[in-house]
Amino acid sequence: MHITKKLAQAHAEGRPTYSFEYFPPKTAQGVQNLYDRMDRMHGFGPAFIDVTWGAGGRMSHLTCEMVKVAQSAYGLETCMHLTCTDMAQSKIDGALDEAYKAGCTNILALRGDPPREKEKWEQSEGTAFRYAKDLIKYIKEKYGNHFDIGVAGYPEGCDAETDADAHIPYLKEKIDAGGTFVLAQMSYDVDIFIDWVKKCRQAGIPENVPIIPGVMPIQTYDSFLRRAKWTQCRVPKHWLEQLEPIKNDDAQVREVGKDLVAEFCRKLLDSGTTMHLHFYTMNLAASTRMVLDELSVAPAADSHNPDLKPLPWRQSLGFNRRDENVRPIFWRNRKQSYVARTQDWDEFPNGRWGDSRSPAFGSLDAYGIGLKGTNEHNRKLWGEPKTAQQVAELFVGYMSGKVESLPWSEAPISSEADSLRQDLIDLNSRGLLTINSQPAVDGAKSSHTTYGWGPKNGYVYQKAYLEVLIHPAILPKLIERMEEKEEITYYAVNHSGELKTNVSSDGGPNAVTWGVFPGKEIVQPTIVETVSFLAWRDEFYHLGLEWSKCYDEATESRRLIREIAESWYLVNIVDNDYRDSRGIFPLFDGLRVDGVDVKTKPITNGDANGFVARTRDGTSIADTETGQNIAKNADHASEKLSEAANTAGAKVKEAANTASDKTKEVADSASAKAKETASSANAKANDAAGSAKAKANDTADSTKAKANDATSGTTTSTSGSTTEHSATSVDKVTEETETVADQTVAPAVEHDTIKREHETRDRDVVEKEIHKDHYHTTIQPLKDTEVQATEHEFEQAPTEYRSVEKDDGAAEAKVAKKLAGFHDSVKEEETKETHAQDETVVGEHVHHHLHEIIQPVIEKGKEVIQRSVTHVTHPIKETVHEKSDDHGVTKAKPISVEEFKHRLDGEAATEVNPDKPAP
Ligand SMILES: Cc1cc2nc3c(=O)[nH]c(=O)nc-3n(C[C@H](O)[C@H](O)[C@H](O)COP(=O)(O)OP(=O)(O)OC[C@H]3O[C@@H](n4cnc5c(N)ncnc54)[C@H](O)[C@@H]3O)c2cc1C
């Protein structure tokens, strides 16, 4: 959603808003820690967060990545800073594209700081933009109104130009170019800021463009001064006067700083200049939280904000996911991996999870799906269990809030499990390892602090749900019991995919949470169904095996965890009778993994609320309007009682300690005083519980009973301390004091020491710009044939003489026959002279040229064909003896013999016409 729209909506309802700025950390561990922090700070209720952009695009990939994760995995409305100078335009295009695809709709368009190595800003050669306004225009051209575009403002000047007024026309230009809100550089002086805003408005920046002050909470004196100097912002004199004397005491600086910054914010809000505060968090949570608490603007931990929790699970604001409104329950403790595995779904635009029978769950290898943390870190967290008993102890530790995560639950156990906690501890202490659960809720108000979600004045419902990892030997008995109860539906599956269920194969999703709201359809946001359970099974066992790999190959821990992951069954159970809050746990009565028996103490501290008592007593969580009040009263009573017990206990202890030196009288008096305090606290608790409505008497009674339990020796914790002391019961300690005084031995006190181990893990992430050329040759065969001029080589073969005999001799015979008729006779006639020109005889030479072409085809490069032809001339002298023609007899003109002889020597004597066929 556009920031301006979001702010306008809240401000129209009179709600002030605020936002948090983060920057990309330098180490991988820092990034992970920041994500965890951003996730937690989501609960502070920011209207949006923003992520800075490194000068010249340094670490820009991380900015894009953080925007994507914040937007999609943590559901935070995110604004990406983007600078436009000292960077190739392709980088700007890439960043805008990534922001768009991450579902981000807000950009803070900036010129950018000069890179560290440059003293002041100069436009680099080849960069497309000179001022932020150029970038704004570019974004508008490319993306239209998709992005809400924020711009930077400087109440006390920018760069070398310290005259803030001189910048105002340029600020106006940025708004005219398409900027829709102004984020101001940090300031600490209210008057300067208010005055500057007035001038901006006078310069024509419209009222509907929010001008947002930048607020830097104070962490330490040095960092406060450094930042103020760097941004050239004026620090009011009285601030320095208050902070300077305590500058070496960080805690005090933060405390006083909180008051000063809160005062600055309050004045701004009261002035009507702004209804939004922008916090430069410096990636830290505490000091920002302190200011918000001081201003009383953040949602109280025990209040329900429908904006923050429109559904029972955190919505993703990733690309196309804003309308997603149904999820399987299995990923409740692993929201990031659910988002990662479903990021390619295209079904969210329909507002529904789509056809659950064809979901394309992404691969298990995708980033963010595996086990978090290093092996060493995880071994520290989960120990090195070698027996099922030790695994059960680990799970009991998690259920009791002593272990902060499990392989399948990334966060500490939530308050929603409070009402089931004792049951969960019981199951785990018997080796029945619980993975996920929710209690039955029969119409809690949608504003309920624990179970509530969605719009105001609605009611929410839940079916009881339990997911548990079961030893295969226990499964048959459990299934037998589940099959006997009609209202129970279940699925059981193991690592190899063997599925047992009593849900018919064509059964659709089973809604396990739903809400009824004024003027709306019933909303059913959480479901259980087959296909997604099988996808969860893959992830579940994958995580189990990853856990086993945290231990070295040959270790017992590795073998044990692997065996559990490979052979135990993951079972999910829904009690469809949502009015029966105790339907599931009795199924496990008497079941236990062989040899597992973890000794646990009943929960007494911190659980003294109406819900625990009531659900354990078998009453459903209904009519919670009353229940909530009762819970509050009971909580309050219990808190007071515990406080009184602590004070009394401490006093007794003090008295008893001095009793060894002083007289028994002193101890007696201390004891009496303690008794008095305790009984007064008790009375107060009873009053509070007694004022609870009659309908919830059982709750109040139970609470009171627990409170009384607390006074009879149960451990309570001192808040805010890292070491937890036992707050010994008032009455009992008084008695002990007496005994101790007699024996002059100090009273026995229990010191439960909670050792909180916190490890800060640093990992250097070196951002190297590595240039490596990668060459790849694509072979493109080209049919390029160059036919070179044919080389002709001429050879003369020896002449072959051929004789073709076509004459069959018939003509000769005929002539001979005719000649035979001629015999000597003398008839002297006159010689007739003729002359004939015989036809020229042409010698015909037929030459056949055989061309044998050898064309080498070279596949590499250009194909060059050198064609050579050897012409071999075979001279053939062919004498063709054609068929003789008989041209008949022609009587020649008589000539003399001499003449005839002479003719025979060379002259033709007969006229022969070759064209005229012979007769
Ligand atoms: C809320 C906020 C967030 C910031 N986040 C980042 C960040 O993430 N990364 C980062 O590198 N820096 C960041 N900065 C710093 C910012 O980039 C620098 O202050 C930079 O020097 C100015 O950027 P701009 O967007 O205000 O530039 P512009 O508005 O373009 O102004 C740049 C300078 O040019 C002047 N100018 C503007 N237009 C004209 C004109 N037409 N003719 C002549 N002069 C003109 C201005 O007065 C100013 O001196 C941030 C600053 C603020 C206030």
Automatic annotation (TrEMBL):
Keyword Oxidoreductase belongs to the record: yes
Entry similarity comment: Belongs to the methylenetetrahydrofolate reductase family.
GO molecular function, one term: methylenetetrahydrofolate reductase [NAD(P)H] activity
Comp. bias regions, Low complexity: 668-694, 710-729
Entry keywords, A to Z: FAD, Flavoprotein, NADP, Oxidoreductase
PANTHER family for this protein: METHYLENETETRAHYDROFOLATE REDUCTASE, METHYLENETETRAHYDROFOLATE REDUCTASE (NADPH)
Entries under CDD domains matching the protein: MTHFR
SUPFAM superfamilies, alphabetized: FAD-linked oxidoreductase (SSF51730)
Entry superkingdom: Eukaryota
Cofactor(s) recorded in Swiss-Prot or TrEMBL: FAD
Span list, region Disordered: 637-753
InterPro entries reported for this sequence: FAD-linked_oxidoreductase-like, Fadh2_euk, Mehydrof_redctse-like, MTHFR_C
Species: Friedmanniomyces endolithicus
Annotated protein name in UniProt: MTHFR SAM-binding regulatory domain-containing protein
Biased composition (Basic and acidic residues): 695-707
Signal peptide (UniProt feature, chain positions): none
Keyword NADP: yes
Gene Ontology cellular-component annotations: cytosol
Pathway: One-carbon metabolism; tetrahydrofolate interconversion
Any one GO BP annotation for this protein: methionine biosynthetic process
Domain MTHFR SAM-binding regulatory, chain residue ranges per copy: 309-582
